[in-house]
Amino acid sequence: MSVYLEILRTRGVAVLVVSTLLGRMPVGINGLAVLLYVQGATDSFGSAGLVAGALALGSALGAPLQGRVVDRYGPTYLVPLATVHAAGLLLVWALGAAGAPIPALAAAAAIAGGGTPPTSSVLRSRWPYVLGSNPRLLTGAYALDSVMIELIFVVGPLIVAAIVTAVGAQAALAVSAAIGFGGTVAFVVALRGHPGPEPDRRRPAFGIGPLASPGLRTLVIASLPVGFCLGTIEVVLPAFSAAEGDPALGGVLLAVWCAASGISGLLYGARPTRMPLTEQHLRFAALLPLASLPMVFAGSPAVMAALVVIAGAPMAPLIASRNQLVSDVAPQGTAAEAFTWPLTALITGVSLGVAVAGSLSEESGWTAAMLAGVAVAGAGAVQIFLQRDRLEARPAT
Q: What is the DSSP letter of 275?
């Protein structure tokens, strides 16, 4: 793990990591906090689901636009975005307390999601500048970033549970707004000590932007089936647990799955190989469906617990290598936006996977849902393998 110590000892990096972790924490808090608050305010899980869905949709659709703003005007514009995000969360609270109709709550949630600052994308775009061209450190940095994502999705719900128990769901919204805003401001201040890409206002404000890169388009398309598979697993594990007569087991299995991913990501970054990055990514893309398939044969909770460890192992390395490839293929001056597109595709895929897996689990059982997730992930692995030549070079600016 010496590579991580070397990264964190680099001047200013520890502050960047901590501040971006705080700035991103609302991503792990907001979905559950909004769901619980709206359900409590309306006494309807259906309404709560619609509002939480609007939050996720706003985040997915707004991310590329936010990235383009940062590319054109610099990371200082993360602060106004964080202000919009915090205001949207507080507006959800205010409207819920006032008994506002669901469309108004959904609109406020969409505003909050659309204002979520792309601190993840900005940090990823800065790694080559902060750490130089050392491939060993860059691989470790992108692996560390993927592990932070897993940490956010583990710690975020725990924060919500603690606040809801002690105070109420409305307080979780306020805490998320405060943490997100404070972390973003700290991140922007920390960035001032590190040179980065110069904002390019000459680029068109409209158009396809970094998607002009064939390599980036390939990574975006490949992120959809990955997300679909992950969304399927998010439904399959609770469905399996319910079939076993222990619904609470679903949360434990999901936590084990995420933990396995995080540990695998740390190991991936700590022991970089000389294998070309593209080849590494292709192998992880192929491992995802292969490692997930055995879950179909789980006959007991103990067996499923062991199998989700295997299924989780390729996740963080796959995401880390994908992000490093984005850095390689994105046109100069578009990095912040470029990193948002695969994430948007991933979230879209997760949403589709959850929807399809929910329907299949109800109609045909959780094994059918899992097979669908494996099949889609397998098709995605084939797609990126066939288009691997597009990942080799950065396009001209």
A: S
